[in-house]
Amino acid sequence: MSHFQLALLLGMTVALGPLALDAYLPAFPEIARGFGISHSDVGLTLSAYVATLGLAQLVGGPLSDRYGRKGILFGGLAVFALASVMIAQAETLGWMIVWRVVQGIGGAFCAVSVPAIVRDQVGGQDAARLYGLIGLIMFIAPAAAPSIGALMLALGDWHWIFLVLAGYAVFVTLVLQLALFPRLKPRPRAVTPVKTLVTNYLLVLRHKTTMRFIGIQVLCFSAMLLFITHSSFIYQEWFGLSNSAFSMLFAANIALMAVLNVINRPLLKYFSSVVLLRVQIILQFLALVALVSVVVMGGPFWLVAACIIAAIGFQGGIVPNNMANALEFFPHLGGTAAAMLGASQFTLAGAVSALSSAYAGEALLPIVISMTVCSAGAVLLSLGAPKAVAREKAAEAARSPG
């Protein structure tokens, strides 16, 4: 199977995550009115999904290592589809949160399977290129998601958004069954003597370089999730934009992510993924510093939007480079390492998002300051990362007994 075909199929699968996060963002005001709650309370449904998406990966990753990628991935798709249907039937915020948690479990089993499948097939710089190609393909989902949500609102109401998500999960299941798993090369057998779940995770937790990259992922994703959680408030409530204008601005973030992702792939021929990662994290931080400055000075809307688009856009290069480096040291525990990465990323970012919903209030400045603080932490971690993970991996292998 070519890298493009593999990336296309895996990109379709991992697109479930951004679709479940972003498709219902334009419906936040309608959901708030329907349940008789505040706009920020609706954000709790997003935080609940994201936090569960992280915690459940701690179970899904090791299960995929032990029992195979296919069963765990298909089980996740089934749970995701069922929960999506039930969310569409929810009549209170409480029940919506409950089924979003269940949906998060299904999404987690899907999310942890994709990077593990990539690590089964390739490693090193090739893995960074493949993650980049998957990211480029899946950018279609978050770019289109708010527009899909706005279309469903025009045709009916917010319930239809989740019925569409259920249908998409069923479609992906059929495509993977017919086109992906019959063509994958067998996963290498684990040769590690480690047998228990706890000790598998301890291997990852004790690996300082891997945990540094996981920390970077958590902080960069937290900055982005803060924007996603409050994007409807920023654009629709603070600046008073329509559903269609909100969808267009949200898509602009994804468009820049795609552009930077495309630029990143040929650069990997000349620079290590760690160097590219460090540069893009620093540029993201500078964009967020500019955003805070504009908000403090009461700058115009177009300048606020430009800074947000620039900051979020750098995720297009940060994510593939960071994921490749984080998983490089665990070729035979790809599911466990991917689970630790995903669990840390989504759980901690979900907690940050929930805290911001509870304490940020109806103000823009606390939101953008929180994003900048997360980015500053990522800068500090990236400055201490090794310049070449491949060389460090070789040195580590040379130090290992036998």
TrEMBL record:
Keyword Metal-binding attached: no
Domain Major facilitator superfamily (MFS) profile: 1-389
Matching InterPro entries: Efflux_drug-R_Bcr/CmlA, MFS, MFS_dom, MFS_trans_sf, Sugar_transporter_CS
GO-annotated biological processes: xenobiotic detoxification by transmembrane export across the plasma membrane
Sorted UniProt keywords: Cell inner membrane, Cell membrane, Membrane, Transmembrane, Transmembrane helix, Transport
Highest taxon, organism lineage: Bacteria
Membrane topology recorded in Swiss-Prot or TrEMBL: Multi-pass membrane protein
GO molecular function annotation: xenobiotic transmembrane transporter activity
One Gene Ontology cellular component annotation held by this UniProt entry: plasma membrane
Leader peptide range in chain numbering: none
Cellular compartment(s): Cell inner membrane; Cell membrane
Matches recorded under Pfam families: MFS_1
Tagged with keyword Transmembrane: yes
Gene3D superfamilies: Multidrug resistance protein D
Segments passing through the bilayer: 46-64, 71-90, 96-118, 130-154, 160-181, 213-233, 245-263, 275-295, 301-321, 333-357, 363-383
Family: Belongs to the major facilitator superfamily. Bcr/CmlA family.
Protein name (database record): Bcr/CflA family efflux transporter
Native organism: Marinobacter halophilus
